Amino acid sequence: MTQSANSSESSKRGARTETVRESETGQRLDNYLLKHLKGVPKSHIYRIIRDGQVRLNRGRSRPATRVKAGDNVRIPPLRLPQPRALNHAKILLRLSESILFEDDYLLVLNKPGGLSVHGGSGTVSGIIEALRSERDTYLELVHRLDKETSGCLLLAKQANVLKTLHRQMREPGPKPTIEKIYIALLVGRWRGGKRSLCQPLETIRDRSRQKRSTINPQGRTALSLFAPIARYPAHTLVSVQLLTGRLHQIRVHAAGSGYPVAGDRIYGNKENNRVLRGLGLRRQFLHASRLALIHPVAGRRLQFEAPLPQELAALLKKIQ
Fold it and tell me: pTM for the full model?
């Protein structure tokens, strides 16, 4: 019976047996297992060796034991989540053509809709974890975008750069140093022209313990500038400039003014969302289209543009 047949039979029973190849001779047993069990924590590897669940040539062994060609290694069945490495690979593939700018200090991405910027709340990992695994260097998010929101995302490659950019974001005044412009499709015909919405927001947790925002006079100051770009029979395309950065700020301000963001599952219009799903909209129509800032080291002003994703542009043609 061949080695592959042996492995197949073992898999059916739960455990499997691997035969050490010539190229693997001399490896420590723990390192051998780490390569064959991608994504399994090293602490778990040590535990299954210590408990005798791993057998080298049918006998117990130690993590530091060196394997040699022809040795048989019994590997017990492991019920673990999808390996983090595989999740990282999928994210990096989607980001492969998303870099808008990069130097020794900054990284600017055109984030695809549907990718989380970081792990948590059931997400194994996000953009920041995947990039760190690939680059093995300092990398931090300067700001965040919702999972479904696409567009300009800024990351810092040095700790002092992150501090400088956060100072820029906190600077008061009618024209912030860091300028963030979004494009959103709102449900309803926007009345009038440019409008400033200044409604304090409070962060709460809903019944499922997920964070969301609500308008509350006792909340934190939140200021958004809405300006209509194009009007459709039942919708309005607007640009939105954020002068503060609260959780779900655009979505809550839009819904609070009577014009929720199209496709928004939390604050939106369910009936309108259902109609738009039939036209191909699979997420909220919110896109970070422009980002401008002062380079934290060179001191020059930079501006980045992220074109409207194809699926959002296609929807606009359907609702005319």
Answer: 0.73
Residue in this structure with the two tokens 């400088």, named with its chain if needed = 164
Query: From the centroid of its chain, how far is CA 157?
Result: 17
Q: Output the CA–CA distances (angstroms, integers) from residue 263 to 45, 68, 277, 295, 312, in the order listed.
A: 44, 58, 8, 35, 11
Calculate the CA 286 to chain-centre distance: 15
Instruction: State whether 275 and 184 are in the same domain.
Output: yes
Same domain, 132 and 11: no
Q: Are 24 and 93 in a shared domain?
A: no
How many domains would you assign to the chain? 2
Alpha carbon distance 297, 148 (integer Å): 32
- Enumerate the active-site residues: 146
- Note the pLDDT of residue 31: 87
3-state class (DSSP) for residue 134? helix
| DSSP three-state, residue 108 | strand
Q: Which residue has the tokens 């019976």?
A: 1
pLDDT by residue (tens digit) across 195-249?
A: 999 999 999 988 777 889 999 999 999 999 999 999 999 999 999 999 999 999 9
For the chain, list residues with pLDDT below 50: 1-13, 81-83
